[in-house]
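To: structure desk
From: M.T.
Subject: fold request, one chain
Message: Could you run this one when you get a chance? Sequence is below, nothing fancy, just the single chain.
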Amino acid sequence: MKMMALWNQATLDRPPYIMWQVKPPEAKRTGVDVSRFKKTLSTVIHDLESMDDLHRNIAVLNRLIYRMKTKFRNDKGFMSMVKLGKALDNYYRMRLKNDYVTLKSLIQMRDGMFNLPSRQNLEYVLARTQGFGKLMTRIESMSRISSHHFMSRMRLGQLWHVALVALATICRIWFHTRDILLKCCFWYDELYRYTPQFQYVGAKPWLPNDQSLPHNLKSWLCVDWEDKDLAHNSSTGKQLIREIMSEEYDNITNEKIDTLMLDEDDSEVDDSEADDSRLTQNIKVTLNNNIKDKSLSNNDMEDIGEVIDRETFVSSSRSNLLSNDESTSIKRKYMNTDQGKRSKKSKIRRKQKCYRK
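Reply: Done. Structure tokens follow.
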């Protein structure tokens, strides 16, 4: 039966705390930079301690899962969010910081000699870092899948306000996970360079014969998105983008010049036509004004007064007609209501007479 990989084990047996000694000149001759090794361990511990924003978003995610589990129990986005929550619980259980703290505590200086941890302890921390990186890739992929489902829900418009809160929390977790994943690759590469320089203490090595640690964690995790981002920011990529943009700009400017030349030709024709039309309009307006002036000059003041009197008579007659119609309509309404009341009273009296008889 094949043994499970060391990075995939939830509880990994720690090797014994065994140290080996080396003098400072010998360490310098062999290339063991103790100060840099200690500095990398302190940076790793600092990075692992400064994850308060990630832990805050994980707490928000757990509360969202608790509140959404009744209404969204069959939703694909919610199910992927539950898987993301389980992966984050495994992240809490790993406690990688304790391993680095214990590894740093083994570095001591006694009697002018360095007491360094054994190679077995270093390989144990590297295996735990490998599993931590694999877990981060799992969290990154699950957050990407769940965010895709919540984005589709927002496009549909169904319970979009709940989906928006969940999407914002998952996106923040995704962002922090990517940052931690890049840092994890840097930690592993910095520590792996010390493995051939550190010594085994004891006859039996800690790693099994059929397993080995990867030389490059980034290639083992298939973190290709960082290379794509770096390609976009590289100098060659910038030069290509500038060349493409310059070609497109030249094409756009040439097209704009051609269209402007065509527009100018059309505008000249349109201006000439507009001028002709304006002249004809002015001629027509002057002719109409002359005709009106002539008609007004032929009429006398008495005729104008008669016209005004006629207009006032027509308007007054119209207002009188409207007022009469409105009064008749109001009277008819009241007449109808009175008639209705009288008919009801007569019906009631007839019924009463019938009952008396």
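Reply (cont.): The chain is about 75% helix and 5% strand. Let me know if you need anything else for the meeting.
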